[in-house]
Amino acid sequence: MMNILRKKIKAQEEIFNLNTKISDLYFCSKKKSTKAQEEMVGFALIIILVAIIFLVFLAVYVKKPQSENIDNPEANSFVQSFLQYTTTCEQDSENITVQRLIIKCQEKEKCDSGKEICKVLNDTIKNIIKESWNVSSQNPVKGYSLIIFTESKQVLNITEGVVTNNYKTGHQPLPDEELINVLFTAYN
């Protein structure tokens, strides 16, 4: 009977040792699994960080104005052409261009008909712009601004519609005693 008891004890010890080895294997495999999970979490964090940086760059690019065209050819061409437009204002039996009206407006002169040159200038430019730039929310041009100024004063300021971040600008300096600047901006 002692032999049977010893065999049972030995069998239980072997089962205990086997269970210990199995649990050691289980813990070892669990440690490897945890390490792999940590690596996956690290990789995921790197991917998230790269995605956030990409989104920041994308947001900066999208918020950047689409076209800040300083001295846009279309707007410059418009300024050049309306300055050469011949008006109904006559002086010395000669019709005067818009460019000369701007210069003579500084001198507070009048047309031969008695009309004030500055009023004729204002009306003429408003009509030219209205015919050239169709402003409305359904059209590509949402608004415009025409400013004629010198270093010391503003000669004329005509603005209509909505100001946006997308615009075209045309500029023309006019030689006179004091430099006169014509600045036209069309907002898209």
Assembly form of the protein: single chain
**Fraction of residues in H or I helices:** 40-55%
CATH class of the largest domain: Alpha Beta
Mean pLDDT: 81
What is the molecular shape? rod-shaped
User: Which architecture of the largest domain would the CATH scheme give at its second level?
Assistant: 2-Layer Sandwich
Query: Whole-Å distance between the termini?
Result: 105 Å
How many domains, as an integer? 2
Low-pLDDT runs of 5+ residues are none
Could you spell the SSE succession in H and E letters?
HEHEEHHEEEE
Q: Figure out the total of helices.
A: 4
Would you give the CATH topology of the largest domain? Ribosomal protein S3 C-terminal domain
Radius of gyration: 41 Å
Which features characterize this protein?
2 domains; 188 residues; Ribosomal protein S3 C-terminal domain; alpha+beta; five-stranded mixed β-sheet; 4 helices
Provide a descriptive summary of the structure in words.
With 188 residues, this protein is an alpha+beta fold. The protein has two domains: 1-64; 68-187, 2-Layer Sandwich (Ribosomal protein S3 C-terminal domain). 52% of the residues lie in helices and 23% in strands. The protein contains four helices and seven strands, in the order αβαββααββββ. The protein has helices at residues 2-63, 73-83, 98-106, 117-132, and strands at residues 68-69, 86-91, 94-97, 143-149, 154-161, 167-174, 180-187. The strands form two sheets. It has a five-stranded mixed beta sheet with strand order 1-6-7-4-5, covered by helices on one side. A two-stranded antiparallel ribbon has the order 2-3. Helix 3 (98-106) runs antiparallel to helix 4. The longest helix has 62 residues, at 2-63. The radius of gyration is 41 Å and the shape is rod-shaped. 14% of the residues are buried. The mean pLDDT is 81.
